[in-house]
Amino acid sequence: MPSSTPPAADLLLRAGRIHTLVPGQQPQRALAVRGDRVFAVSAAPDGLDHLAGPATRLLDLPGSTVLPAFDDTHTHLIAAADSARDVAVDGARSVAGFLDLIRARADRTPPGEWIRTTGHWQELNLAERRFPTAAELDRATDRHPVLVLRGVHNQVLNSRALHRCGIDADTPDPVGGTIARDAAGRPTGHLRGGMALIRPHLPVPDPAARLDGLRLATHAYAATGIGTVRDTNSTPADLAALGQLRDAGQLGCRVRVLLGTLGYTSVRQVEELLDGTEEWRYAADPWLRLWGVKFWMDGGIESAALDAPYCPAHCPTPGYTGQFAWDQRELEEAVELVARRGRRVGIHAYGDRGVRALLDLYERVQRRLPGLPHGTLVMEHGGLADREQRERAARSGIPVTIQQPLLHDVAAIQAEYWGKERVAALFPARGWLDAGAEVSAGSDYPVGSYGAAHSLHGLTTRTTVDGVLGPEQAVTRTEAIALHTTAATRLTGESRLRGLLTPGRLADLTVWPADPTTVPSADLAGLLPTHTLLGGRPVHGDA
What order do you get walking across the sheet with 57-68 strand by strand? Predict the structure, then answer.
């Protein structure tokens, strides 16, 4: 006869509060895991003790709070991995201090090898409030090519690096970007959107070092409560490397990949990208999936497409209103190609003119391709979007990803380019939700800092490095948590797999020393989980 004894749990977790995020359900006190799934929950701390067996792991944390693991729906994991061993310059407070950090790395780097910085820093944090120049970088080292990264779109090269990349007075600006020049037309070292000119001259990463960087980066995300990332600028080679880590069981978070098209100018290039990744199209592995293709409508801080001109000090030409990254007809054809091939599209749109152009493009594609599956066309950022644009996106069923940490970190420098009033209107979370739009949240690292609680704090307080901006766009804790959990899994099409802590869903959860739903705002920003578990397996903390 079949046994009536329930199977033993692989993990039994007891906590002070377990927020399952099931609407109307009170916090639970116990959770059992079998395999990689939640097996049962109970309102009593001892309510699942009958599921304990000789091999059951017990995590007894009566003072802790449990939530589902968070998603970062727009980030650059690959950038974090690539810079895992680069020069960290975010602590510099002057150009001299910045150069000292590079000089120290040069002292222990063989001559001729590239030196790179991490990208998570802001020039306004330096006393001089500007980028270093090629000439200044030369004073740190003229024996090494130096690549300074700032965010995704800005680069600074020293003279040796400019020469190695073949960038001189005759080099035309990159598509969608610029080369800063002195009065004589010579490059000063600063490029915007210049990676297409630089990347072919960078060394091919050592495969083992690259895998280790990816491993470190995925676990670093997990240490902040992020269990799944949606990387928005990967290459086929990145996808293959992530596959190696998955196969070795070394990923620290789940990854949803958008293949980047930065530097692309033609539909043919996009077609080749699709052809080269067809084998990943139907892979349903819960750790690693190909989500779709990423395009750029406009630029970022310095070149987003705006309706009104930039501040006078930052107008390279009179009346400058930013720029588009693609020829619009070519972009539309490329987007339609991706959608016809059954892939999904995410397009960066940051300025209000960029958001409007994106909605126009998506609506034309929807008319030509009626019945597209939900979530095929996504707006990345939706930064400066007024009420009319928000309502248009909601009516058209266009999901939007927003990134409060980006606003937090760049508010001061963004105000230099746009003015504080426009910056205060960025990422209008309250407005997006009130319009009925499908919104989820991320960080846009390395422009913004990743971290679950850091994002919750910004979404609920609108605190930035430049003070509280746009407080009317703040949302509640419950809404902010949903943007990183249940709303995020709707975006990725995984609502039945993740986002709630209910039997049958993946046991992706975070354990916190204080309750993120009630902890005072002053304590929320720096709150970190003690444990992050994915599929019941610890990827951060001991369990």
Answer: 37-42, 28-34, 11-18, 57-68, 509-512, 531-534, 537-540
Q: Is the dihedral of CA 374, 379, 381, 386 positive or negative?
A: negative
Place domain 1-69+499-543 in its CATH homologous superfamily. Urease, subunit C, domain 1 (2.30.40.10)
- Inter-CA distances, 172 with 135, 179, 180, 184, 191, Å: 21, 8, 11, 15, 12
Residues of the chain with CATH 2.30.40.10: 1-69+499-543
CB proximity list for 272: less than 8 A, separation 6 or greater? none
DSSP state, residue 9: P
Lowest mean pLDDT among 157-161, 300-304, 347-351: 300-304
Query: Which residue ranges does the chain devote to CATH 3.10.310.70?
Result: 87-201
Confidence of residue 543 (pLDDT cuts 50, 70, 90): low
> In degrees to the nearest 10, what's the CA dihedral of 77, 81, 82, 84?
130
pLDDT tens for 119-151 read 888 888 899 989 999 999 999 999 999 999 987
Is 87-201 in CATH node 3.30.390.50?
A: no
Global pTM?
0.89
